[in-house]
Amino acid sequence: MMDMPRWLLVAISVLVLAWPASCADPVLFPVAKDAATSLYTIPIRDGANHVIDLAGPLLWSTCAADHLPAKFTCQDKECKLAATAYRPPSCHVGGQQCTQQQQRCAAYPYNPVTRRCAAARLAHTRLVANTTDGANPLRQVSVRAVAACAPRKLLARLPRDAAGVAGLAASGLALPAQVAASQRVAGKFLLCLPRNAGGEGVAIFGGGPLFLMTSTAPPVEVASDFTSSLTYTPLVSRRGSSSYYLPVTAIAVDTVQVSLPKDALAGGVVLGTTAAYTELRPDVYGPVVGAFDRTLRRSWNNTKRVAAVAPFELCYDSKTLPGPTRIGWLVPEIVLVLEGGRKTNWTFGGLNTMVDVNGFTAACFGFVKMKPEKNGGYGGKPAVVLGGFQMEDHVLHFDLEKRRLGFARLPVFTSCSNFNFTRKG
Ligand SMILES: *[C@@H]1O[C@H](CO)[C@@H](O)[C@H](O)[C@H]1NC(C)=O
Ligand SMILES: *[C@@H]1O[C@H](CO)[C@@H](O)[C@H](O)[C@H]1NC(C)=O
Ligand SMILES: *[C@@H]1O[C@H](CO)[C@@H](O)[C@H](O)[C@H]1NC(C)=O
Ligand SMILES: *[C@@H]1O[C@H](CO)[C@@H](O)[C@H](O)[C@H]1NC(C)=O
C-alpha cells in the first residue's frame, strides 16, 4: 500500500471526527414508576416528570416560564401536524385550529387516565437530557421541541409530581419524532420499563445498543448488547390512530389456542403504557381466564383458589402454586401468536403474568377485564391493551423507520433498573 502523506491522514481524521454531527448519539431518559398510580414517568424539563403514553400523539405540559412565546403561522409544519394529530372520539372541545392574526396554533392534549382533553396552544420548549453510548450517560444536551401548553386541571389523576404527558406514538409531534428531528438521531427508540417504584428504567431515543449491569452485589457490567437478540414483529397502524398495534392472530395458553368468538381480535391488540395491567375485552377475557385456570389445574391439581383481590378475579393460595422460582411461578404461559413476515410468538411467563398480593400469601392472574365506554358499550375498543406489568423488564425496540417492534424479556440476572447512570469520564 502506498504511504499516505501525513497531512492527508490528519485531514481524514478531522473529517471522521466531524462526521458524528449528522448521526448523533442517542438521547437517554431515566424511567420511573409511580407507586401510587403505577404510571411510568420521565423527567424531561428541569426534572419535571411527564407520564409516558405509548398511545399519545403529543407532548404536553402545564404552561411554564420556559415555554418560549410561540409564534406559529398556520402554514408551519408543527401547526399542520397538530391539526391532524389523533383526537380521541371522546374529545369534544373545539375551536379554531389556527388563528393567523394571533399566531396561535391549537392542539388537543389528552389525559389517558381521566380520558379528558382540553383546548391548548402549541409552544416551543427545550428538554434537558443526556446523550448515551448505550451503557452510560455521556453529556448533557438541550433538545428543541414543541409542546402543547395545557391547563392545570388536565393533570387530574396523574402522579403528584407530573407536569404533563410525553406521547410516544408514531406521530410527528410525539417525543420520538421530535427528538429524531432536532438531534438528528434515527427514528427508533428503546423502552425498558422498571418493575419496582424504587428502580429507574430507561428510554433511549435514537436506538441501541443497550448495556445493563447484573443484579448481583456488587453489580457487574454485562458486556453484551441486549438489543442484539430481539424478536421482531411488524407494527400495524390503524386509520386515524398513531398507536402501536400488533398483528395478533390468536392467543394461546401454553401450546393450546384459546377459542375466541369469531372476529374477537378484529378490534386489534394495542400497546398501552397507561394501563397498569393488560386489559382484555370481556369476550376475550372470559375464554382466556377460563383456559388459564383449566390448564393450571390439569398440571397442578391441588391448586386452591382464594377470594379475589381487586382489580384481579383469579387468585390462588401461594402455597398451592408451583414455584416460586427465579423465573416466577411455574404457571401456564400466555402466548400472543403474531402473524406477518416470519411467524413469531410473544410469550409471557410467571414473572409477567402473576401478581403477588396479600404479603405473598396469594398470587393473582395479572390480566383484567376492560371497562366499557360511558355508554356501556365496547364499540371501537381494542380486543387487548397490552399493559405495563406485562411489558416490564422487557427490552422494547420501536423502529419507526421500518415500522416494526423488537422485543425480548431480560434474563433473570438483570432488570430494567440496572442501567449505569454514572457518567463516563
Ligand atoms: C446527566 O447525567 C448526569 C450523570 O449521571 C446526571 O447527574 C444528570 O442529572 C443527568 N442529566 C439529566 C438531564 O438527566
Ligand atoms: C406459536 O404458538 C402457537 C400456539 O401454541 C404454535 O402453534 C406455534 O407453533 C408457535 N410458533 C412459533 C414460531 O413458536
Ligand atoms: C392429582 O395428581 C396426582 C399426580 O398426577 C394424582 O396421583 C392424583 O390422583 C390427582 N388428584 C386428583 C384429585 O385428581
Ligand atoms: C458504572 O460506570 C462508571 C463509569 O464508566 C464506572 O466507573 C463504574 O465502574 C460502572 N459501575 C459498574 C458497577 O460497572
From TrEMBL:
Residue stretches making up the Xylanase inhibitor N-terminal domain: 49-207
Signal peptide boundaries: 1-23
Ranges of residues in domain Xylanase inhibitor C-terminal: 243-408
GO MF annotations, alphabetized: aspartic-type endopeptidase activity
Keyword Cell membrane belongs to the record: no
InterPro entries: Aspartic_peptidase_A1, Peptidase_aspartic_dom_sf, TAXi_C, TAXi_N, Xylanase_inhibitor_I-like
Regions annotated as coiled coil: none
Any Pfam family matching the protein: TAXi_C
Example of a GO biological process term: proteolysis
Keyword flag Signal: yes
Keywords: Signal
Similarity comment text for this entry: Belongs to the peptidase A1 family.
Name assigned to this protein: Peptidase A1 domain-containing protein
